[in-house]
Amino acid sequence: MTDEPTLAVRHAQQIEQLLEVLDLTPIGTARIAVTGVDGDESTTIGTDSADVFEGQSIEQLHNRTFGGQVLAQALMAASLTIRDAAPERRPHSLHAYFMRPGDDKLPIRFAVERMRDGRSFSTRRVHAIQHGRPILSLTGSFQDPAGGLDHQDPMPQSPDPRALPSQAELYDRLENPHAKRLAERPFDHRYPAGDVALTPREPHAAHQQVWVRTISEPVDDPFLRASILAFLSDFSLLESVLRRHGLAWSDRRLRVASLDHAMWFHRDVDPSTWMLYDQSSPSAQSGRGLCVGRIFTEDGTLVASVAQEGMTRVKGDVDPSGPSRASTPAGGAQPVGRPLPGWAPRDALAPTVLEGETVRLRPLTTDDADDFFAALDGPDLPRELFTYLMTEPPADATEMRDIIRAALAAPASWPLAIVVDEQVVGMASYLRIDPAIGSAEVGNILYSPALQRTTAATEAMHLMAAHAFEQGYRRYEWKCDALNAPSRAAARRLGFVEEGTFRNALVCKGRNRDTTWFSITDDEWPAVAAAHRAWLDEARAGTPSPLASHLRR
Fold first, then answer.
1. Which residue of 20, 278, 434, 527 has the fewest C-beta atoms within 10 A of its own C-beta?
2. Catalytic residue among 258, 305, 439, 487
3. CA pair distance 212, 210, nearest whole angstrom
4. pLDDT score at 33
5. 308 is catalytic
6. Active site residue 396
7. Which of 188, 195, 234, 368 is catalytic?
8. Which of 308, 448, 487, 519 is catalytic?
9. Domains of the chain: residue spans and CATH
10. Residues 6+ apart with CB under 8 A from 534
11. pLDDT value for 543
């Protein structure tokens, strides 16, 4: 047993600490002067004094203050010089430079210069100071509410955050101090394509999405809302660079630090509600990566835009100006693969809803455990369904929930619930999703007796394959135990081509497993898809012929 507080208790403690570090203390003023200009003893530079506030830091494992915290505190310090005189004048933009690492054991002082107060705009300049030197410089602008032209980008498609695994819940189970620290953050992060905190993903497009919210009660104060939004905007933005190059934060070679940060506040938002942070990196070079992000509410309202450049060095990188073996052309008459003009990494397959005429697939959640266990005939479920799976048969709905939770936590995969007449009757997953080469596998397939040998069973497999190829993938795989004759037959029936058997490929339940590989490629898919559709039309009409008769290889 352990006396460690529950995750909910630790989240409450972290929220309290977050609010404490944003509750700055006014400690006085400082005089600003320039001497020795044209013989004058003092020449003003727009303001001759600064309001000074002090704040504490949230301790970090590496003992360096989190940049988002200093950013949020600087914005709050600027707000404290405005809110009493102009409570409706809210922040609309900030531009900041991170100059030195902060010490999380020492307080930070924030010197706020009142650069301008106009009829509808105010400008503030803030320096965050430790050891008598600035660690961050921020300029912020505030505006009274106003009418005018109004438009926004539409929100990109993304799965329901409630259907995605919580990063906090996943990492709290790990006995790793970095994982525990991630789990305890007072923000709920959910990644449609999995995070890159500890595990690298295959290289793909420099883009990612993160659903995020504070794990707190609703936040009413508009200035506090803006500061919390600035705080969380710094968490994951540089990850688009890491994804593009197949890196994770845990890579010991990485040297990453925020250099500057710009943010535009378009519309008000309560950060305790779900927000989609859509992020991309248009360029990385010279040890720097540029990332941009857009923050949307769940109903599609664009509330903020963010841009950040960060240092993104990898220790031991080859000098890009030097020779590269990869760029050396092949000599002689050596055969090479066919060219792929215009090829670019695809987007990662994300949880989605696939609608058919007899079946519906949607992201699987742990809430499906009771219904799915019942569909498997509960305690009387056929144990042979699990003979070739990596898991043992569940004894009850709780163990079924554990199986689903493990599927949700698997890297580079997305499990889908197979639903017929509003009942979860099966599950299947996209596995080994590799956007860099456009490859994905269908696996972890578990059909209840009610689903087996039905039109819905075939349509579910067709919908998953069709979705992968519609996303531009080049290869769709099926792998099974070489001794699993029904699975091998199902693969062939669906139009997969057998490629061979990997011997001693896995250890499953203490036994050796040879694995047989099958695939469909993008040039084969049109004919296979047509065969599927022809068979499904016949099946729905009640006159199906063997699916193999429709396949033309």
1. 20
2. 258
3. 6
4. 67
5. yes
6. no
7. 234
8. 308
9. 7-144+159-314 (2.40.160.210), 354-550 (3.40.630.30)
10. 550
11. 84
